[in-house]
Design a protein that fits this description.
The complex is a heterotrimer.
Chain A lengths: L1 H11 L6 H23 L3 H21 L3 H26 L14 H23 L9 H19 L2 H22 L11 H10 L49 H8 L19
Helix pairs in contact in A: 1-6, 2-3, 3-4
Chain B lengths: L7 E2 L8 H17 L7 H24 L8 E11 L2 E9 L1 H24 L6 H20 L3 H19 L6 H31 L5 H7 L5 H19 L7 H4 L5 H10 L4 H8 L1 H4 L5 H24 L3 H21 L5 H28 L17 H15 L5 H14 L3 H30 L23 H33 L11 H24 L13 H7 L4 H49 L4 H24 L1
Parallel strand pairs in B: 1-2
Antiparallel strand pairs in B: 2-3
Helix pairs in contact in B: 1-2, 1-4, 2-3, 2-4, 3-4, 3-10, 3-15, 3-19, 4-5, 5-6, 6-8, 8-11, 8-13, 10-15, 11-14, 11-15, 13-14, 13-18, 13-21, 14-15, 14-17, 14-18, 15-16, 15-17, 15-19, 16-18, 16-19, 17-18, 17-19, 17-20, 18-20
Chain C lengths: L3 H20 L3 H26 L3 H31 L13
Helix pairs in contact in C: 1-2, 2-3
The chains are: A mainly alpha, B mainly alpha, C mainly alpha.
Amino acid sequence: MSAMLLAQAAVNTATQVTTGEAVAFWVLGPLALAGGLGMIFARNAVHSALFLVLTMLSLGVIYLVQQAPFLGFVQIIVYTGAIMMLFLFVLMLVGRDSSDSVVEVLRGQRLWAGVLGVGLAVLIVTAVARALTDVRSVGLAEPNANAGNVKSIGKSLFDEYVFPFELTSALLITAAVGAMVLGYVDRHQRGRKTQKELVEARFRGEHDRPSPLPGPGVFATSNSVATPALLPDGSVAEESLSRLIDATASEKLDQERKAVAGTLPGPDARALAPGKEDRS
Amino acid sequence: MNLAAEAHQASGVAGAAWLLLVLPAVGAAVLLLGGRRTDKWGHLLGSGTVIAAFVYGVILFFDTKSLPAEGRVANLHVFDWISVNSLDVEFGLRIDPLSLTFVLLITGVGSLIHIYSIGYMSDDRDRRRFFAYLNLFVSAMLLLVLGNSFVTLYFGWEGVGLASYLLIGWYQGKNFAATAAKKAFLMNRVGDVGLALAIFLMFKNIGSTQYDVVFAEIGKQSTGVVVAIGILLLLGACGKSGQFPLQAWLPDAMAGPTPVSALIHAATMVTAGVYLIARSSPLYSLPQAEDARFVVMIIGAVTLVIGCIIGCAYDDFKKVLAYSTVSQIGYMILAVGLGPAGYALGILHLLTHGFFKAGLFLGAGSVMHGMNDEGDIRRLGGLARKMPITFVTWTLGYLALIGFPFLSGYFSKDAIIAAAFGAHGTRGWVFGGIALLGAGLTAFYMTRLLILVFLGKPRWENLKSEDGRAYHPHESGPTMTIPMIILAVGSVAGGAILSGLLPAWLEPSVGELVETHGPLNHTVVSILTVGISLIGAAIAFAIFGRREQPVTRPQRVSFPVRAARADLYGNHLNEALFSRPGVWLTRFLVFVDNRGVDGLVNGIAAGLGGSSGRLRRLQTGFVRSYALSMLGGSILVIAALLMVRFA
Amino acid sequence: MTPTYYLLLSALLFTIGAVGVLVRRNAIVVFMCVELMLNAVNLSLVTFARINGSLSGQIMAFFVMVVAAAEVVIGLAIIMSIFRTRRTASVDDSNLLKY
């Protein structure tokens, strides 16, 4: 039904712009412009995206008005609906902390961008205005008349533009594969051994020693790096000595050596109060 | 005019003339390469080679003399030396009366001085090397006089320059000796450039440097070329012979050992300039060369006066003798500048001067040898009784030098003075007068020297030499006195013998001696010369003989004495004219090079570097700025399109 | 009113997009500006189709949309991977390719 309605409208506006269309334009055009401006001025990227959605919706409607119903719906569904959501999705992934700071780091960038933008606009507007004065539009009534806009486009696509269309499919597949390649993260570190394999390798002699290095302070009363580990016999474990930090002088370790050896009169395990160690 | 006789190919005794060069050269080579191994017998080898060369020279002399006058010029081809396109220089010797005269002088005096050096250098641990250098010198000097082309001469010329440099700087540990050697070397270079340019000119205009060809063809050249070659040759002569304005190195050269001063800087090498001009007599005799000859005479006259005046003021024994040499060579240059009237006289004076000046130097050496190397005449005095042989031989040389009648100088110098008076017009009066004045001054300073050194009170008695030893003057040993005696005999008799024979003997080389008849005849000039010399001697006696002389030189003296002590500002002149402008020029060139050439090169580099540094800034790496320029470019393209479309 | 106004609207939107590319630093926003420029062009194509009475313009716009979709997929993937390594989505931070 809508197609019929649109076709009707198309016939009506075959050659001239109707008042309705003019009204639509004067509503949608400023909206689109406002969306564009809002997009570039919004500090928040999400706001920018929403402003762009506004512009795109306006454009979609303008397409509908301009006898391009297929494109209008594609614009709204695919563009506004899918692509912009993808944008938003990525925006959320990246996080909002990356939003622009207010300070412009490139000297003169904004000024020149403004000047060149105005210059570009003036140039194009001038060119269009001068070139297309008094244009009489032919209108799409005839192409759209036979089978409607969508059918006509489909016919052209699979008839006249079939080769570019197939190329497009290749492009899309390539893009999909590319996106997968870029987006894929290999979380498996190759060649990483399991703990079991590691232990076996240690005992096969593939490493310097089967056990881990003794940590500082093992069998000692302190866990400072400066305190060397003491072996069960009370001697200093050479491997535990740090190459960067001077180890505590061995005399100071005497106590600990004795403690490890059990020669130091320690607190009586059965005593309820700390007693004799005060004398030491 | 009767120029050099046609040269024939040397044969017989003359065919071995290369021995003259090779003997001393071998001596030098053996002594230098042999090192300390030759220390024991080095001096004997050195002397032996020169004596052998002398003996051969004598044989060659008599052999040549036995030939008829036309056959006395021989050419000995040794090998082809330089053969490049049209330049074809053969290494050849020219045996003719002129070169033979020099050969005898060089080897004769050289032998005597070698013998003398055995004694004089006995204390020097490097005596062997000294003899090597002396041999090198003799060899080079013989090449200089025997060569049959200007290039060969130049080779020898540089060789003697090298030997002179090495020997002046013999006491290399002493600053003044090193400086003096450098000075001599550098000032000689100035003259050598003149000689080299003269040779280039000959090659350019004549296409050869062989004497035969050059002298045969020189007459066809334009006046400008002849005068230019003449003056450039004179410049070379000035450098080597210590003539104005290049005289300043010669007195400094006395820094070398005394035998060197006697051999190189009195008798032989410094006379190379005279030889050069006499050898080029066919050139200077040309009518086109009138101007060049005139310049030669001026240089000679100026130098002889300068030498005399400075000689009057110096207190250093050897330096006075050195300036005396400068002045006497001035006489010789003046003589050869007179042209055909003077070549033979110049050579004659050269020979007699070689005898008596060598003798005087050896006497000075003997004195210094006995007096702890003391050369300041104010610290000497009264040595006649302590060194009788030295005194007698020295006095004979002295008398010969001042032109005492019938001694050597009388025959040679008076003849030059008379010939100078014989020059054309006012020139005769001017040059004759100068020469006469020079004779008086010569007598004055030589008498002063005689009185201060040998006569008067022994001022050295209460003094000590620089190294703190007391003076014990003593006569030198026989190796030193015998050469002095021989040279003294030569000084006495040489003039009388040679004056009669030499002009005719030299005729094949330098042409006939033309008698000139000036306003004053020979007898009058002789009487005048002797008279003026006596007056000079008498003044000197009056000033220095009567009064006690101070041991230190008086500082409050009149301007002329001060000027003379400062070498008549010869060094200042050289410095102001050549040295400073040279330094300025080099500074300027360095500036130009640094700022101009390098500046240009570096400037281009710096400019490119700087601009690329600026351009580099455009590459910020910021995508947005690239995008900005893209947009700018797009706008330009669009604007251009629109302008084409709508304009 | 004539269809020319659509073209003028398209020009203005294109300019806004271009300026946005220049002034915004967030890569995603820059990307959105590029999308805006593409949309502006699409509007022109649609308008030309109407003026000329031919569907070719619309088909071209359709192709532009397809290409834009592919571009968005790849572009966002690139932005993601850059963000993974650099923890930033600012185009100014990827400035290593400079002097």
